[in-house]
Amino acid sequence: MKYALITLLLCTSLLSGCGSSDNDNDVPAAGEPTVTSTAFDALVVDMIENKTSDTAAPVDINALTITFSEEEGQFDEVLDN
Amino acid sequence: MSKLFTKTLLASALSSMALAAALPTFASSHREAPLITETPKVDGTDFYMFRSYESGRAGYVTFLANYLPLQDAYGGPNYFDLKDAALYQIHVDQNGDGQEDLTYSFEFQTIVNDLTVPVNGTQVSVPLKNIGGIGPNAEDVGSVNVRQTFSVGVITGDRRTGSALAATNTTDSSTTFAKPLDNIGNKSIADYATYANNHIHPITIPGCDTAGRVFVGQRQDGFAVNLGAVFDLVNLNPLAAPDSVANTIADKNVTTIALEIPIACVTNGSESVIGAWTTASMRQARVINPTPDFDMNKASVVEGGPWVQVSRLGMPLVNELVIGLKDKDLFNTSEPSDDGQFIDYVTNPTLPELLEILFAGVAVAPNLFPRTDLVTAFLTGVEGLNQPANIEPSEMLRLNTSTPPVAQDAQENLGVLAGDVAGFPNGRRPGDDVVDITLRVAMGALIADATVAPNNTAPLTDGVSVDATQFPAAFPYLNTALPGAGNE
């Protein structure tokens, strides 16, 4: 169940690899600042795997609400490569 | 708390100080911002740019970018390698628009040989950087366990998205250059000066007909300062003789990136003034590996993502003394073209006010706002000296490449203030006493009206003297690194 919740959290982000982002978190009401809820582990994994580039602009984390999980093994994907 | 009350409080607290007229000094850019203290390998400490004054090299510009501050020479067994997953860059603005037109980009690679020795029939990896004598030649690496090489990219246009080509070693057309080990001591490296000099490489810059020179390696820190006293509420006497105080960091080394380029290859042909600054960048994401495994090529950390600039240095002392604490990390990530966000720190500087507070009745801050004199010194260059024809105010070191170099023994350590127009702030040479110069300018040396700037002719000094005779008059211009052992 915990794994499922983390997966859900990852897929509510705008990070690549999670399909389309139709979650309400991504659609601020009129007049509200644009804030995206993003899981920290997914953010890091996405940066390393998909945004490692000499030409890419840094990710503006000020625009994100970053959530954290105590789940172990969150970064195995990048450590095992 | 009112300004008047603050002044009174601080003046009272300092009243026991016997220094009748003490005034301050500073560190150039060593550990100057909170974040950079966590990553010393990418901490830029000093940046120099000048017409080469080595005999026969007047047609070149030399850049020196120092990184990794306050190295104790005995800091083994790992000593002070630069960071592999980082960009160390020197940017050049050729037309005064505040944006880089050329970037020299240095990247380092650590080579681990995993040397072993037989122990009771088993080959076992050694824990040291070397297991025998090293040098004097760059190729003498047989007993070296860990060393670094570097490459130099030349980027035209934007530093991230511009056109990038690799510079090559003129000797063998390789794109890889050897970096010497640090000065471990004279049992490991018997003649370090010769060994280091053998790592000065001729470099072929794409599009440049004449070769330049490049060196990256450990040198003695050329900056001179009474560091501890400075940050103890300026606990020193600056009206003593200019060489009355020992240089606190005289026993420290730094790592120098030195590059000498023909003038014709670093200017655009129509504007003789160039602006330059150095930056370091790291990957935005980092994951610590809980089980690094050398045999499986599993690194101790995995880094990735876009490059993020974490260090910036052009004119000396700016992030130390001009930028407010809350914005120091931001300044290190910023680019000159965005310096408008910091303008209040220049037009309404805090340093003179703090000096007036700390030394009430002696130091008097200039009463000129906005401080257009500081805008000239820091953001535009001085008209007729080192200001480009078309200038967008931005902070960087500016050099008029048409100003002839001055021989070492004729250089004035107060630079332009002493009539030596080839010195700071028209570029910066190792022997320029930028602390004294900056201090005097901050207190109004560029303001003619003494009623506005009462300290405008005061011979302010930090008490630590530096001049050109303390350094070699040859590339890479900074002194040989202090040894970790022996040679005492």
Summarize the structure.
The complex is a heterodimer of chains A (81) and B (488). Chain A is of the alpha+beta class and 81 residues long.
Feature tags:
A: 81 residues; alpha+beta; two-stranded parallel ribbon; 3 helices; disordered N terminus; B: 488 residues; 6-stranded antiparallel beta sheet
Q: How would you sum up this structure, described in words?
A:
The complex is a heterodimer of chains A (81) and B (488). Chain A has helices at residues 2-11, 40-50, 76-79; strands at 36-39, 64-67. Chain A has 81 residues and is of the alpha+beta class. In chain A, strands 1-2 form a two-stranded parallel sheet. In chain A, helix 2 (40-50) links the parallel strand 1 (36-39) and strand 2. The two termini of chain A are 27 Å apart. Chain B is of the alpha+beta class and 488 residues long. Chain B has helices at residues 3-13, 192-197, 227-230, 263-266, 318-322, 328-333, 343-347, 351-358, 372-380, 434-442, and strands at residues 44-51, 60-72, 86-93, 102-112, 116-119, 122-125, 146-156, 163-166, 168-169, 177-179, 201-204, 212-220, 252-262, 273-288, 301-313, 397-400. In chain B, the strands form 3 sheets. In chain B, strands 3, 4, 7, 8, 10, 14, 15 and 16 form an 8-stranded antiparallel beta sheet that branches. Chain B has a 6-stranded antiparallel beta sheet with strand order 1-2-13-12-11-9. Chain B has a two-stranded antiparallel sheet with strand order 5-6. Chain B is globular. Chain B starts with a helix and ends in a 46-residue tail after the last helix. Chain A binds chain B through residues 43-44, 47-49, 51-59, 75, 78-79, 81, and chain B through 160-161, 164, 283-285, 287, 289-290, 298, 302-308.
Strand content of chain A: 5-15%
Structural class of chain B comes to alpha+beta
Give the overall shape of chain B, derived from the CA principal axes.
globular
Give helix and strand order of chain A, one letter per element, not per position: HEHEH
The poorly predicted ranges of chain A are: 1-28
Question: What does the radius of gyration of chain B come to?
Answer: 23 Å
Helicity of chain B, in percent? 10-25%
The general outline of chain A is flat
How can the largest sheet of chain B be summarized?
Answer: 8 strands, antiparallel
CA-CA gap between termini of chain B: 53 Å
Helicity range of chain A: 25-40%
Mean pLDDT value of chain A: 68
- First-residue to last-residue Cα separation of chain A: 27 Å
